[in-house]
Each structure stands twice: as C-alpha cells, then as structure tokens.
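Hi V.,

You were right to ask for the full record rather than a summary. Here it is.
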Amino acid sequence: MNSAVETKILDAAFKVIDQYTISGTRMHLIAQECGMAQSNLHYHFKTKKDLLIALLNYIQHQFNESRCNAMNQCPNTLRGQLSGFFQQKKYIIQEQPQYDRVQMDYWSQGQVDSQINESIVQSYQIWREHIVSTILLYDPEQDREQLNLLAHIMVSMMVGASVQYLSNSQAFNLDAYFAACLDMIENFLS
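Predicted structure:
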C-alpha cells in the first residue's frame, strides 16, 4: 500500500508522463508537480525507474478496481458481465484517455526495458485471467485453452479500440464497435 505522500507522487508522475511521455519525464518535473523538493521525491523513489515501476503497478491496481466497479453495475449474466469489460474500456477511452496514452507509452518503453515489459506482461495476464474466470463462473464447461485464446482476443479488441478511437474519434461508433465485439465473443463461446 502506498503512503499518502507516495500516492501524491504517483499521481504527479502520471500527469507529467501524460504531458511529456516517459522519455521526456524528469524527476524535477514530477517534484514540481508535487510541490516538493526533488530530494524528498528521491527519498520515496530512489530512481526514475523505481518510480515508473511503482506507477505502472498503481495504474494496474486502479484499472482492476475500475473494472470490478463497472462489472458490479452490470447484469449478473454472462453477457452482462462480459459487457462490463467493454463498458469499462469505453469509459476509459472517452472519459480518461490519459490512462490509455500512458499505458501505450509504457508498452513502448517495455520493448527496450525488460523490467517494464515484465510489469506490462503481468498486467495483461491479470486482465486475461479476469476474463477467463468471469466466463467460467457462468459456463464452467468451457475449454480452458479456448478461453485463454478468447481472453487474448478480447484484450486485443479493447486495446485496438483505444488505438483507433484515440487517433480518430470520428472513424467509428464506439457503442456499435463494442456491441459487435460482444456478439462475436458470444458466437465464439457457443
């Protein structure tokens, strides 16, 4: 669990990364955003990389909470719960696009940094496991190997929506996109 000061630092780092990207982020910019001395920042996070890994884990925790909240508001059926995954992603795309921008920046950094890549791999694994466990709650006879493949497909649908919609929000209707995704997932399961 993060202290209040560490949470303040992580929130500031998130804002700075969204504005400057990971490559352009400097510890002094984060300290300025926090309104603290850079030495205080280094007391909590010795290096920029330590801070980046902590921020990625913090974001993952927020995604997990957001996803659970979205799903709790959906009907307690397989279709309802699957729609919760898409509803959460739609909300992030439209209301909190900075999360997708920062996540994509992390993905890019992960291509050259094995520690960041490992954190990205773990975050996607958590997402996919949540999809699989949700389906198994309603349809425990489904083949686990097929469900693992389906989880990869669903994540690709959601990440693909982010990349395309954030590049050009006029290109397609997000509601229609996710409704089609949900129909495809149900067809795959039947």
